[in-house]
């Protein structure tokens, strides 16, 4: 394959379109979260990921798992956790079974802020996708994003048969 190979050119254009869509969505959500709640997209994502932990087996995430979930390096994730902990939105504690492990939980204040910010995040996401869908080059990617969370098969109806 050469640099002018049509397959590589199409692949590169697809990647550029995906990158553009991601950037537009993230910037739109960032502006909304900052304006309404004083949160960055990364802070919101971290609170969201950590709020889904539970006390059962495997319910608490190690810092590497958290970093992977928010798409940051471990050191950047640690700095982000520290900033949110300083704001009273997170609390760290030692793992009860392995004193070397440190876990992070969302505080009550963090859960409250997350609950307040979730509708803003969801609305900004919807707005960004709707705007992107107007661009013919991005519309197919928007459809993929919209269908990614949809169930593979419709759930059976629980209503009265007609």
Can you describe what's shown?
With 162 residues, the protein is mainly α. It has 6 helices and 2 strands; from the N terminus they run H-H-H-H-E-E-H-H. A two-stranded antiparallel sheet has the order 1-2. A hairpin with a 7-residue loop joins strand 1 and strand 2 (102-106). The radius of gyration is 20 Å and the shape is globular. 19% of the residues are buried. Mean pLDDT is 88; it is low at 155-162.
Give a brief description.
The protein has 162 residues and is mainly alpha-helical. The chain has helices at 6-37, 41-51, 63-70, 74-86, 108-133, 139-148; strands at residues 90-94, 102-106. The protein has a two-stranded antiparallel sheet with strand order 1-2.
Secondary structure blueprint with pairings:
Blueprint (H helix, E strand, L loop, with lengths): L5 H32 L3 H11 L11 H8 L3 H13 L3 E5 L7 E5 L1 H26 L5 H10 L14
Antiparallel strand pairs: 1-2
Helix pairs in contact: 1-5, 2-5, 3-4, 5-6
């Amino acid at each position: 394959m050469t640099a002018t190979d049509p397959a590589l050119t199409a692949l590169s254009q697809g990647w550029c379109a995906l990158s553009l869509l991601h950037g537009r969505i993230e910037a739109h959500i960032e502006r909304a979260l900052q304006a309404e709640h004083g949160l960055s997209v990364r802070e919101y994502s971290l609170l969201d990921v950590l709020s889904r932990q539970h006390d059962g087996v495997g319910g608490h995430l190690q810092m590497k798992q958290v970093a992977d979930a928010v798409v940051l390096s471990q050191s950047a994730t640690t700095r982000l956790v520290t900033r949110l902990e300083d704001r009273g939105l997170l609390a760290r504690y030692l793992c009860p079974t392995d004193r070397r492990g440190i876990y992070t939980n969302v505080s009550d204040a963090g859960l409250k802020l997350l609950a307040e910010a979730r509708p803003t995040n969801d609305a900004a996401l919807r707005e960004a996708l709707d705007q992107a869908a107007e661009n013919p080059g991005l519309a197919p990617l928007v459809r993929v994003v919209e269908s990614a969370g949809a169930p593979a098969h419709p759930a059976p109806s629980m209503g009265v048969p007609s």
